[in-house]
Design goal:
Layout lengths: L4 H7 L3 H13 L5 H19 L6 E2 L1 H10 L4 H20 L2 H8 L2 H24 L4 H19 L5 H15 L24 H34 L8 H15 L7 E2 L2 H9 L6 H16 L3 H7 L3 H21 L4 H12 L2 H32 L1
Antiparallel strand pairs: 1-2
Helix pairs in contact: 1-9, 1-13, 2-4, 2-15, 3-13, 4-10, 5-10, 5-11, 7-10, 7-15, 7-16, 7-17, 8-15, 10-11, 10-12, 10-17, 12-15, 16-17
């Protein structure tokens, strides 16, 4: 592992997707943010050693989004959905079924998912910048955006590191310390499964696991492996089977202890790479800091993170999104990529994925029919 400032910067490139989800879930009392950060930090350490690339550990987006926007999941159902997805992914990896699914799913669909997710992330980043209450914050956000763009194209400057430092100083400066009383929080909940009912398993599967499974297979396994092979062609450790088993084991271990369902997302990998990460040290550094902060800050952690400025998160999210979208366009093979991305952006990832697979199968059938037709014509002639 090579230690550089750019590695430190790259380790923070995924915060634009990580922080908004965990903060929103914590505010709704659907997760313990200390537990979430503690376990994701531990997993960051392990993945950095196993793969030696900036492999992200992110919240499962579909489960998190349903819990935040649709109010269809309780804390217990979030846990059960993670266990169910983890069990299925582990089974797919151990039986090598994930390789069969990879052959059945067109690369055009994977590229479409990358393009759609990337564009949605960039749009969401712009929304975060625009949502700032004060004009001065928007102006600072635009200036920092320009600076970040220049740093990418002209200099190898650790811009994400600077952005997080600015955001942290801003957050600490607006806190009312007179009303803050420190309380240590144990980041492991061994009793979480005691309150789980049959209904929690049922609704966890229907509302959480079911829409998450295809997204995890495509974005967190197939797509992240495709992106990894594109960014790190010399690294042969990352395989669809190893990533599938990793996602399965992670959730089967941490969810019963109160951890938020997690995966390895292509967007996180793109963001960390965009901001300078090139090897496992970036993730090792991130993981160690997550563990330290989750243990040391106690109840103050959620207070600080809740005050972290949206315009900083927006910048991180915007550039992470552009990196992922560009990879989707570069790997595009035909119009199926654009159609999949368009459907995904106008509906959701689940619908876009299913529709993309459907039209790719139709295209494959047409191509096969044309091939058979041409062979028959050649024989007759």
């Amino acid at each position: 592992m090579k230690i550089t400032l750019n590695e430190l910067s790259g380790s923070l490139g995924d915060l634009g997707t990580y922080l908004p989800l965990v903060i929103a879930l914590a505010k709704l009392n659907l997760i313990n943010i200390n537990t979430t950060m503690f376990f994701s930090g531990i997993l960051n350490v392990f993945t950095s050693v196993i793969w030696d690339i900036p492999m992200p550990v992110q919240p499962m987006k579909s489960i998190a989004s349903v819990a935040i926007t649709e109010n269809n999941l309780t804390k217990e159902q979030i846990i059960t959905s993670g266990i169910l997805v983890g069990g299925i992914l582990l089974l797919l990896g151990l039986t090598k079924t994930i390789d069969v699914l990879n052959k059945l799913i067109s690369q055009s669909v994977v590229s479409g998912i990358q393009l759609g997710l990337g564009l949605n992330m960039s749009i969401k980043g712009i929304d975060y910048i625009n949502s700032s209450e004060y004009l001065i914050e928007k102006i600072i956000g635009i200036i920092l955006c320009i600076f970040t763009f220049i740093s990418f194209n002209l200099y190898k400057f650790p811009s994400a590191l600077l952005l997080v430092i600015i955001g942290s100083v801003y957050s600490l400066s607006i806190l009312d310390y007179s009303n803050i009383e420190y309380v240590f929080i144990i980041p492991i909940d061994v009793t979480i499964l005691k309150g789980v009912t049959k209904e929690d398993w049922y609704y966890g599967f229907i509302n959480g696991a079911l829409p998450q499974i295809p997204l995890t297979i495509l974005n967190s396994v197939i797509s992240v492996c495709a992106l990894s092979n594109n960014l790190f062609p010399e690294n042969k450790k990352v395989s669809k089977r190893s990533v599938s088993i990793s996602v399965g084991l992670m959730n089967l271990i941490i969810c019963p202890l109160g951890g938020l369902p997690v995966c390895h997302g292509a967007g996180g990998l793109a963001g960390q790479y965009k901001f300078g990460a090139r090897n496992g040290f970036s993730i090792l550094f991130l993981g160690i800091n997550k563990v330290i902060l989750s243990l040391a800050l106690g109840n103050i952690l959620i207070i600080i993170l809740s005050s972290f400025p949206d315009f900083i998160l927006g910048i991180l999210l915007f550039f992470s999104g552009t990196e992922l979208a560009s990879k989707g366009l570069l790997n595009s093979h035909n119009d199926i990529t654009l159609i999949t991305a368009a459907i995904q952006m106008s509906t959701n990832t689940f619908v876009g994925t299913i529709f993309g697979i459907f039209i790719s199968m139709i295209q494959l059938s047409i191509d096969n029919c044309n091939t058979i037709k041409n062979r028959i014509i050649n024989i007759v002639i």
